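The protein record filed below.
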Amino acid sequence: MSARGERAGRVLLGVGVVVAVAAVASVLVLFWYFGLPIDHGSLSKDTTIRGGLFLTEGTVSEGGVVLAVPAGLLLVASCLLFPGYFLTRGRMGLSSGSRLGGSVVATYRVLGTRAHLAWIVVAIALWIGLLVVPLASGAAGGWPSSIEEEARQYIYILSGIYGGLAAGLAALLAVSLGKKRRFLAMAEAADARLETADAAQAFWRWYGYRWRIDGWLATVGGILVGVSVLALAVGTPVVFGATLAIGVGLLAIGVVTALQFWRAGEAIGSAEGFA
């Protein structure tokens, strides 16, 4: 990686972090806004938006647009953070093997365990702050149960969306850490299985290396486990139980299969995208 590319990566990372912090701050600002003693009824009005290939028109409530502001900021942040990370910690290239001409391959320096754990703690703290705290406060008779119903519903929607995303991120990071530690432990022990071709290697390469399905399952499972507390607070025990059970099941599959990454026959600090 050239010095110029690494500098560009650091700039992208820095700006991406600022935008990500702004996204979290925007959720807190919306909490404050919906808690104001004003009429929020206007947010239920529909507004017309234009988009799509043929500029077709659609309608969405003004409240829906407001709730999507943090998501838009997170999308911008991800567009900066991912390339910034690869520019500073790795390199990308093309390899043959795809019917369409090649596959995009990235190799990168593995994140240290302490830094990895720190990001898990950050994600869990966001889940607690954005979802658990409002629910616990409302259950005790405080904010947001003390404000008018429509605004309270917006707050719970905000909590569910962004608190759930934080829980999904925490689950993804935790499963990723387990996968990494298992692979590195096998490498340090010079485990012969890392050098032995497995009959199922093609499947595991497709599942865990190219498409990272274990990570997707862990993320969805983490989201469901995270928002299950919301189902318990504002739903029914049946909805809570179903949400929690499905989430735990998906998370368990993600964990078990992530620990089989070594069967893919690839290094832990690399990834491949279909192109």
Notes: The longest strand covers residues 46-51. The chain has a mean pLDDT of 87. Strands lie at 46-51, 56-61, 90-95, 103-108, 270-274. Residues 3-274 form one domain.
